[in-house]
Each structure stands twice: as C-alpha cells, then as structure tokens.
Amino acid sequence: MLTTDKIAHTVAEYARRLEAGDSTQIAALYAEDATVEDPAGSAVRKGRAAIAAFYSELEGLALTAELLTVRASGDTAAFHLRVITTTGEFVSSIEPIDVMTFDERGRITSMRAIWSPADVVHQRRSSQ
Asked: Which top CATH class is 4-124?
C-alpha cells in the first residue's frame, strides 16, 4: 500500500542517488514504463532505458543534491531540491521544483522538473 511515508522515502532516496550519480540506480526507482520530463516542456523520456540514458549525463560529475522541502498527498509528491555541480573552475546551482507520481509499490511513474535555464546560477570557484 502506498503511503506518504513511502513516497517521502523514495524522494529522499532519489536525491541520494542523484548525488551518487549512478544512472542505473536512479532509473531503478522508476516503474518500467515511467516518464521523465526535465525540464517541463522538453522531450518526454519514456521507459527505464531512456530514463537511465538521461541520467547518465550526471555520471562522473562532482554533484551534491539537497532535499529542501517535500510535500506528498495521494500518489503525488512535489519537492524542492538544490543541486550543485562543480566542473573545472565553475560551480553551478539550480533549485528545481519536481513533481512525481507513484504506483502502489512506491515506484516513480512520472517526474516533471520545473525549471528553466534562467534558473541556473554559475559562479567561478574561489581560488584559495
């Protein structure tokens, strides 16, 4: 049976796996025929293989993912996430609002990330 606790646990695990950067492990949280639309309005990726391919862009990045807020109701969660990546001399930060739906087993059936390129903040790393 799906509960808000199960949803919150899956969302927290999603953030942890984002930070670990293993696309296969992230995709394993999704149902077989799930969809990802990141950012909302972009092409929809459908199915675990397409979802794993999408998240493979994170592999090898120095990335932190901090879950800021989670709200769950019924089969849906909305959450605010801070993602920081460091590449070379730059640090990039974004705080999308993600909306996920879940099946009765707690697997993600859809994810839409609400953000635009204007929301990404790029800064030079300070030299110390």
From this structure: alpha beta
| 22: annotated active-site residue | no
Q: Select which of 14, 30, 55, 98 is catalytic.
A: 14
Q: pTM of the prediction?
A: 0.93
Among residues 30, 38, 55, 98, the one annotated as catalytic is: 38
Q: What is the full per-residue pLDDT of the chain (128 aa) written as tens digits?
A: 899 999 999 999 999 999 999 999 999 999 999 999 999 999 999 999 999 999 999 998 999 999 999 999 999 999 999 999 998 889 999 999 999 999 999 999 999 999 999 999 999 987 65
Concerning whether 75 is annotated as a catalytic residue, the answer is no
- Let me know how many helices (H) and strands (E) the chain has, helices first: 3, 8
Q: Name the residue among 84, 54, 91 with its Cα closest to residue 66.
A: 84
Q: Write the DSSP string, 4-17.
A: HHHHHHHHHHHHHH
Q: Where do the domains of the chain lie?
A: 4-124
Per residue, what are the HEC states of 39-83? CCCCCCEECHHHHHHHHHHHCCCEEEEEEEEEEEECCEEEEEEEE
